[in-house]
């Protein structure tokens, strides 16, 4: 069985004052709890890890450079992220693919860098509203998966998050059937490429407007092993009920 995982993507939100949300979340976790990963902005990684350590919560970053060090003003390497105690890094988020023109090749190189530093990559893939309207969803998903996931993926090194771009931060959520169709498709592609044993162990997360009131329904789908949550991960009072729904699923 793939590991159940709830990952929170704080994006460019939060200062040191927000770290209390991690403590509050730790206190509100069900027992047993699924794996919980909080991905705060990079300046908070060290302190977030110190706070999360005793709380059954792990910490992730939101991006990394594909090189290990060098003259890349403003960038951070996977080694630097691992050095903070963080264990995960989100890569290929649609906001980076769009705003920074990150290609599948770029994302693939970054995932390799993450693996080399011992980090688990959370690979994001997802179609735009136009792609879905034109019935191109599975083509886009298949292309992103083939293009941005390097050979050698394992369940320990890789999570795949399906995030329809039109559902991110909009309050719009695909129907359960639409989620099931894409997640089943991703599962098939992973087992074809990496073998049944590995392909069926890689956790598949759904992301895009996951909230306390829709989480239960989303987690009903067989190949949904967790969620990548943006807005609703910023407050423990919103994220805890989502994690509880995952624990019950
Ligand atoms: P959202 O963001 O939950 O705020 O829609 C999800 C994401 O971008 O990972």
Q: Ligands bound here?
A: 2-phosphoglycolic acid
- Helix/sheet category: alpha/beta
Q: Give the assembly state of these chains.
A: single chain
**Total count of strands:** 8
Rg, rounded, reads 17 Å
The major beta sheet can be summarized as: 8 strands, parallel, barrel
How far apart, in Å, are the first and last alpha carbons? 13 Å
List low-pLDDT spans: none
Work out the helix count.
Answer: 11
What overall geometry do the principal axes of the alpha carbons give?
Answer: globular
* Average pLDDT level: 98
Sheet with the most strands: spatial strand order: 1-2-3-4-5-6-7-8
What share of the residues does DSSP label as strand, in percent? 5-15%
List the helices and strands and how they pair.
Layout: E1 5-9, H1 20-28, E2 35-39, H2 45-52, E3 58-61, H3 78-83, E4 88-91, H4 94-99, H5 104-116, E5 120-125, H6 129-133, H7 137-148, E6 158-162, H8 176-194, H9 196-199, E7 204-207, H10 215-218, E8 226-229, H11 236-248
Parallel strand pairs: 1-2, 1-8, 2-3, 3-4, 4-5, 5-6, 6-7, 7-8
Helix pairs in contact: 1-11, 7-8
């Amino acid at each position: 069985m793939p590991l159940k995982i709830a990952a929170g993507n704080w994006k460019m939100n939060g200062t040191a004052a927000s770290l209390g949300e991690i403590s509050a979340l730790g206190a509100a976790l069900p027992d047993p709890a699924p794996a919980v990963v909080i991905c705060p902005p990079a300046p908070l990684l060290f302190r977030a890890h110190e706070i999360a350590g005793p709380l059954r919560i792990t910490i992730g970053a939101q991006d990394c450079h594909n090189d290990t060090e060098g003259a890349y003003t403003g960038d951070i390497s996977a080694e630097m992220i691992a050095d903070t105690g963080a264990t995960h890094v989100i890569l290929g988020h649609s906001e980076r693919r769009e705003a920074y023109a990150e290609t599948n090749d770029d994302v693939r190189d970054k995932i390799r860098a993450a693996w080399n530093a011992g980090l688990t990559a959370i690979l994001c893939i997802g179609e735009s509203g136009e792609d879905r309207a034109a019935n191109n969803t599975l083509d886009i998903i298949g292309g992103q998966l083939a293009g941005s996931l390097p050979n050698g993926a394992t369940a320990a090194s890789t999570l795949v998050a399906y995030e329809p771009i039109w559902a991110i931060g909009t309050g719009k959520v695909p129907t359960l059937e639409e989620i099931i169709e894409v997640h089943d498709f991703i599962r098939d592609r992973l087992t074809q490429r990496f073998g049944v044993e590995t392909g069926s162990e890689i956790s598949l997360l759904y992301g895009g407007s996951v909230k306390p009131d829709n989480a239960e329904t989303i987690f009903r789908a067989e190949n949904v092993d967790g969620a990548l949550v943006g807005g609703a991960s910023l407050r423990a009072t919103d994220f805890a009920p989502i994690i509880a729904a995952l624990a019950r699923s």
